[in-house]
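Please decode residue identities from the backbone states below.
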């Protein structure tokens, strides 16, 4: 990642679209990278009919590779570098060669181009009822929101999910930063969304799992059958919510902790996310039998969650160590004879001609 240039927001000058737009030096410069595309993903279909594939390559190349095979995943989760301008080191307990990676600054022109081009390609390839979840923190999420609004349209924004965790150190000069953001976009009026799959009994504390008596202002009562309920009257109607009824989570998730140093789930890969978090994403935004995509897959957490929940998966990462770690993790989970297929997009055989249509509109013809 080069091109250290500051991003800034400028209003669009032409047309009737007055939405703000992020611009940065280099945004209009064409990409110099080779542009691999299309062989078939068929080799990644396991005997049980599920797709299991791992791609070593840039996220943009991986998206075009998958798109060329047809049938693009209906759920894509992305956990790109957060734009912190540091190297993300592997856990000291699990240090492994290559398990760290460089994270550019969120204002770096190449970083913004990576997000922009990735989102633009996904907006082109994803089925309309599909879901895109982009996981960042407060560093790059504002830029990502603007780029997602631009590429998917502001109406496609569904939720900003706050993943709040209590663990880790305390800051001295600011309030401690204890949350990540998951941006959910879908263009369909009725996206593929399964809140019942992640619902929990209302009377259980989402953090400790214990029973709780008070969690909102509603009146507690007991109905004719002896069941504890909460009631509220609004606009002349009486609403009754049984305590043991199920409620889907809101947009603040504080019941999933980060991985502890000695957590058995740890692979040693820097910034590995807990599988519980990805299990919730996969269950809420896809159905069994769907294929889930993750083109910054790191240690393969999303893919592992997809495997356990009966989904297919296709993952990709630029770091060969990530692909190795993910492959080992998934081979241990997959049924006999269903280890993921692997592709390397830096192989000459995979390099086709660049297509102008693979660049966002403002960049076409300017390489
Ligand atoms: C935050 S980590 C993902 C961690 C992952 N969710 C996990 O649980 O292990 C971001 C990943 O993006 C990868 N990456 C960085 N630039 C990339 C690019 N241009 N294309 C694909 N992957 C990239 C890094 O190698 C790193 O593995």
């Amino acid at each position: 990642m080069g091109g250290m240039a500051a991003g800034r927001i400028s209003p669009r000058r032409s047309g009737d679209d007055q939405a703000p737009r992020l611009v940065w030096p280099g945004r209009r410069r064409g990409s110099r990278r080779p542009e691999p595309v299309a062989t078939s993903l068929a080799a990644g279909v396991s005997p049980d009919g599920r797709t299991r594939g791992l791609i070593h390559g840039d996220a943009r190349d991986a998206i075009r590779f998958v798109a060329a095979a047809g049938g693009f995943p209906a759920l894509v989760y992305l956990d790109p570098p957060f734009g912190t301008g540091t190297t993300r080191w592997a856990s000291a307990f699990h240090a492994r060669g290559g398990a760290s990676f460089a994270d550019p600054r969120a204002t770096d022109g190449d970083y913004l181009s990576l997000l922009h081009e990735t989102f633009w390609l996904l907006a082109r390839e994803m089925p309309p009822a599909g879901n895109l979840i982009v996981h960042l923190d407060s560093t790059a999420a504002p830029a990502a929101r603007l780029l997602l609004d631009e590429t998917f349209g502001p109406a496609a924004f569904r939720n900003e999910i706050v993943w709040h965790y209590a663990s880790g150190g305390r800051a001295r000069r600011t309030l401690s930063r204890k949350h990540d953001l998951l941006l959910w976009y879908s263009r369909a009026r009725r996206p593929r969304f399964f809140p019942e799959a992640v619902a929990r009994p209302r009377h259980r504390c989402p953090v400790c799992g214990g029973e709780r008596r008070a969690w909102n202002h509603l009146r507690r009562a007991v109905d004719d059958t002896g069941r504890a309920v909460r009631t509220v009257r609004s606009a002349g109607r009486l609403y009754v919510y049984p305590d043991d009824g199920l409620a889907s989570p809101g947009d603040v998730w504080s019941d999933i902790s980060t991985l502890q140093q000695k957590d058995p789930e740890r692979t040693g890969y820097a910034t590995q996310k807990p599988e519980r978090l990805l299990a919730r994403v996969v269950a809420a935004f896809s159905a069994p039998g769907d294929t889930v995509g993750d083109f910054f897959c790191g240690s393969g957490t999303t893919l592992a969650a997809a495997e356990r929940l009966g989904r297919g998966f296709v993952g990709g990462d630029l770091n060969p160590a990530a692909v190795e770690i993910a492959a080992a993790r998934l081979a241990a989970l997959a049924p006999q004879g269903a280890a993921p297929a692997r592709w390397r997009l830096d192989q000459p055989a995979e390099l086709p001609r660049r297509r102008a249509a693979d660049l966002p509109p403002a960049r076409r013809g300017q390489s």
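Observation: The pocket of S-adenosylmethionine is lined by residues 58-59, 79-81, 101, 114, 269, 271-273, 295-296, 298-299, 301, 316-319, 322 (CB under 6 Å).
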